[in-house]
Specification:
single chain, 12 helices, 2 domains, Alpha-Beta Plaits
């Protein structure tokens, strides 16, 4: 379940209470008249079954409370209550299949920002990938996959495309378009300094290695990217975040960026082109698969709950 808190103008409190009372998936309703300070108004709280949340948020937004008040949601880990059990049983659908669009927009919007933290994680991940390439260490490559923060912006692009939120698409695309080249530049500099210091030479890329899959782009690269993108978006929309770890260690976005940086400095142009193509295939495949999952879940949601308004967020 999710905990809902609403701050609304006092003259709209009765309508909010009526909306929540009419929602079978809502319970633990609390009304605190005049408790809101900034913005001023009444505070109304309720616990809402996940599968009923999107409809509830849509109704509250129709009352203008996202502009003249405030709506917040928090995840409830444990609810010991017969009333909560009844609300979840009476809410249509299943919690694991419910998509809370406003929550998804907020989550992907936050993770799509280009900032120092995102750039630092991406740079460290690419440096780890470069170390894995140089030392032929698959374990280090996997570590780089896990550290990489790129799935957030990729998911944001998919959500923005499906919801036609072009501001979200632009922001996430900017994070990727600037973040990856910057991280690759840092990795290339690290590779140059390591080569200059005599830690390794061009021979580290000669011959056959365990990590050669990073630059060997092909049909399987796209297949893995599509499956990972689908699993990642399913994980985000169903709040099963543990599955994201499997997504991180299955795609070769960060390893490909790291490999391209190493190959560029060491003059391995064929491998540079291959790893760059691998990066592009993975990025595109993840976005297309994630968007496809959202479209499927959206159409399923509409078919199962005909007539429900879709909040535009």
């Amino acid at each position: 379940m999710l905990h809902l808190r609403v701050i609304c103008p006092s003259d709209r409190a009765d309508r909010v209470l009526a909306l929540l009372r009419a929602q079978p998936g809502a319970t633990h309703l609390v009304h605190l008249p005049g408790a809101g300070v900034l913005p001023a108004g009444d505070v109304i709280e309720a616990d809402v079954a996940r599968e009923a949340t999107d409809e509830t948020i849509g109704g509250l937004c129709e009352l203008g409370l996202d502009h003249e008040g405030g709506i917040t949601l928090e995840q409830i880990d444990t609810a010991l209550s017969d009333a909560a059990d009844r609300a979840e049983a009476e809410a249509p659908g299943d919690a694991a299949d419910a998509v809370v669009w406003e929550e998804l927009l907020a989550r992907t919007g936050e993770e799509s920002r280009l900032n120092v933290t995102f750039t630092a994680f991406l740079s460290i991940a690419c440096l780890l990938a470069a170390v894995g390439v140089i030392t032929d260490s698959s374990v280090t490559i996997v570590g780089a996959m896990v550290v990489g923060p790129e799935f957030g912006p990729l998911a944001a692009v998919a959500v923005g495309l499906v919801r036609r939120r072009w501001d979200l698409v632009r922001r996430a695309s900017l994070a990727l378009a600037i973040g990856f080249p910057l991280a690759m530049a840092v990795t290339a500099l690290g590779t140059f300094l390591g080569n200059w210091a005599g830690l390794f030479d061009a021979s580290v890329l000669s011959g056959s290695h365990e990590v050669d899959f990073v630059y060997q782009v092909g049909y399987w690269s796209l297949i893995v990217a599509v499956l990972a993108g689908a699993a990642g978006m399913l994980s985000m929309t169903s709040a099963k975040s543990a599955a994201l770890v499997g997504v991180f260690i299955s795609v070769t976005t960060v390893p490909a960026a790291g490999y391209a940086s190493v190959a560029l400095i060491l003059g391995e142009w064929g491998r540079f082109v291959g790893s760059t193509a691998q990066l592009a295939v993975n990025l595109v495949g993840i976005v297309l698969a994630a968007a496809g999952v959202l479209l499927l879940r959206r159409s399923t949601w509409r078919a199962g709950d005909a007539g429900r308004p879709l909040s535009e967020g």
